Amino acid sequence: MGPPVPRLGIPGVDHIIAVASGKGGVGKSTTAVNLAVALARTSNLKVGLMDADVFGPSIPRMMKLQGKPEIDEVGKMLPLHNYGIRCMSMGFLMQDDSAAVWRGPMVMSAIDTFIKKVSWGSLDVLVIDMPPGTGDVQLSVTQRLRLSGAIMVSTPQDIALIDARRGAAMFRKVAVPIMGIIENMSYYQCPKCGHSEHIFGQDGAKRTGEELNMELLGQVPLEIGIRETSDAGTPIVARHPDSPVARVYCSIADRVRHKLRLVEPQLGPRRAHQNPP
């Protein structure tokens, strides 16, 4: 076995964060989108969002973006942007109803394009919406990119948490720090009487985090407003910034910013440095 391949940084990007889940259907993309918007709006950071889920790219719809990226003078794609976030997704390069039926090497080629052939500009944080699961693609991304950390997303349900454990184990196997776990669909609160019901179980992510030494970054409720704003392309942090749910996302963003500042004390709003090309 040869020496390990050096991990790549992205020119101009200070920190790269992976938002991941051990399985699909737990709200990973919704979490990534609202976290990115919260980092930009409440922490005054320059933020990018890379949609690495090439099989089911959802960032174009959630961020209300469409059209193909323009090409700059050196042949690199320029990210589309909305809500102050620079975005790149395979969804910008495909027909809306096209299916991405690709083998692993093709997927990695697409992700390499996002890493090497996109002009991200000067960013404090690049948030990556990872594909769900713990297969070769996910492992390759974590091994190729110099990540500042990873965030796991799970529901409180035992089945989802089993997969979240596998995801955490993958990141630790390749020496990527885990910044914490977010419990999505944590509880449902009746808008009329205020009663809370833990539909998928209670405090599952908290217990798992304690067992695996992962901080519980926040508990996001199961709320129709999150679904409606995501489908409409107006993330709830942008559409209803003063809502209780938006405040949960902003609190999570604050914890993430704090963790990044432990690594880079001068993180935002002023640029501290740029990675070499």
Would you mind describing this structure in some detail?
The chain has 277 residues and is an alpha/beta fold. The two termini are 28 Å apart. The radius of gyration is 18 Å and the shape is globular. The protein has a single domain, classed as 3-Layer(aba) Sandwich (Rossmann fold). Helix 5 (158-173) links the parallel strand 6 and strand 7 (178-183). The longest helix has 20 residues, at 244-263. Helices cover 36% and strands 17% of the residues. It has helices spanning 28-42, 59-62, 104-116, 136-144, 158-173, 204-212, 224-232, 236-239, 244-263; strands at residues 13-20, 47-51, 80-82, 85-89, 123-129, 149-154, 178-183, 188-189, 196-197, 216-219.
How many runs of DSSP E, i.e. beta strands?
10
How would you classify the quaternary structure?
single chain
Write down the secondary-structure element order: EHEHEEHEHEHEEEHEHHH
CATH class, named Alpha Beta
CATH architectural type:
3-Layer(aba) Sandwich
Major sheet size, sense and barrel closure: 8 strands, mixed
| Overall pLDDT level | 84
Structural class: alpha/beta
Within CATH, the superfamily carries the name P-loop containing nucleotide triphosphate hydrolases
CATH topology: Rossmann fold
Residue stretches low in confidence (pLDDT < 50, at least 5 long) are 270-277
Domain count, please report it. 1
Strand-residue fraction?
15-25%
